[in-house]
Amino acid sequence: MSTAMNFGSKSFQPRPPDKGSFPLDHFGECKSFKEKFMKCLRDRNFENALCRNESKEYLECRMERQLMAQEPLEKLGFGDLIDGKSKTKTQS
């Protein structure tokens, strides 16, 4: 049985991943941020709203290391956490 390799018939055209999919962190570059986020979730009975700062830091790490596409933090739902700003009203 002979297998013919026909390299010239089709060329591979790479395309970017679909939105929402991104490379795994094979080298553990953001592992500490992930662990901090997961600990926060466990400590707070998996109420993710209580761990938004940790989530933001993890996503920032991934974007800085090109493990996901750069997105404005406002678009990711963290507009109120940028530069220490908070939309919550302080009580006097």
Describe this structure in words.
The chain has 92 residues and is mostly helical. It is 28% helix and 0% strand. It has two helices and no strands. The chain is globular and about 55 Å long. The relative contact order is 0.12. It is found in: Cytoplasm. It comes from Equus asinus. Belongs to the COX19 family.
Question: SSE layout and pairings?
Answer:
Layout: H1 31-43, H2 52-64
Helix pairs in contact: 1-2
Feature tags:
92 residues; mainly alpha
Question: Gist?
Answer:
The protein has about 90 residues and is mainly α. About 30% of the residues lie in helices and about 0% in strands. It contains two helices and no strands.
- What does the largest sheet look like? none
Mean pLDDT, as a whole number? 80
Tell me the distance between the termini: 84 Å
Helical proportion?
Answer: 25-40%
How would you describe the shape?
globular
- The run of helices and strands is HH
Number of strands: 0
> Beta fraction of the residues?
under 5%
Rounded Rg = 20 Å
